[in-house]
Every structure is written in structure tokens, then in C-alpha cells.
Amino acid sequence: MKSSELRFLVDVGVGIGIEKYLREEGYDTKAVREIDPRMEDEKIIRTAVSENRMVITMDKDFGELIYHSSMKHSGVLLLRLEDATGSEKLQVVKHIMKNYSDRIQNCFCVFQNDKFRIRKINR
User: Fold this and answer.
1) Does the CA dihedral 45-51-52-54 come out positive or negative?
2) Count of other CB atoms within 10 angstroms of residue 71
3) pTM for this structure?
4) Could you give the CA distance from residue 28 to residue 9 in angstroms, rounded to a whole number?
5) Which pLDDT tens digit goes with each residue over 61-101?
6) Domains identified in the chain and CATH numbers
7) Is 108 helix (H, G, I), strand (E, B) or coil?
8) Is 48 exposed, middle or buried (0-12, 13-18, 19+ CB in 10 A)?
């Protein structure tokens, strides 16, 4: 997928290195920490939807909002990397973008235990 087609909203805690990497690769990327570091999850999703952005987060609560509350979304990339360093998180995101960027838009994606799952969920 062309970098101009994927747009991201990066949640607090994901890391500045990932924000920088996505921008350097040409992805239209905004950071929650630059907008409002205390923004609530529901507002993050609504903002992402209004701007057609995929949320990148480490917060499991986004799964609850998408699956159980059926919130409309533009895609979520959940990184289950609780003890990872910034460098380790960056390597995971680079791997995902290199190998899966053409398949993740508008999907709920989870990276955990060296496995990557992509699920298409009705928006």
C-alpha cells in the first residue's frame, strides 16, 4: 500500500521513535501526545474516524471498545509489547509496515508473542 493511503494516530506510550519513523516513511501521522496527552480512548477513536486514521496503541481497552462496544473505527494496531524497549517496538512496527501495510487498513490488528493477527471488523 502506498504510504499516502495509510494515515495514523499514534497513542501515548507507543513512542516518539515510531512517530518519527512513520513520518519519515511518508505516512500522514499525528500523535495523541501532541494533541492532548490525556485524551480519552473513545475520543481517540472518534478523532481517528473523523480523519480516516488507524490508531496505533499499546492499550488493550481499544479491543473492548471495538469488539464489545461496537465503536465505529478506521482500524487499530494493538502492540502487546508491555516490556519492550523503544527500539524493540520500532523493529516490530517496521516489520509490520514492510510485510502487512497493504492489508491492515480498517482492520483490528494485534501483535503479541511474535505473532501478528489481522481481523476485518465491520465498521
Assistant:
1) negative
2) 17
3) 0.93
4) 9
5) 998 888 877 788 999 999 999 889 999 999 999 999 999 99
6) 7-120 (3.40.50)
7) strand
8) buried
CB-hemisphere CA count at 13 Å for 21?
18
Between CA 93 and CA 50, with CA 101 as vertex, the angle to 5 degrees is 95
Mean pLDDT across the stretch 4-18?
Answer: 92
Q: According to DSSP H, which parts of the chain are helical?
A: 16-24, 32-35, 41-50, 61-63, 86-100
**Residue 64: how many other CB atoms lie within 10 Å:** 12
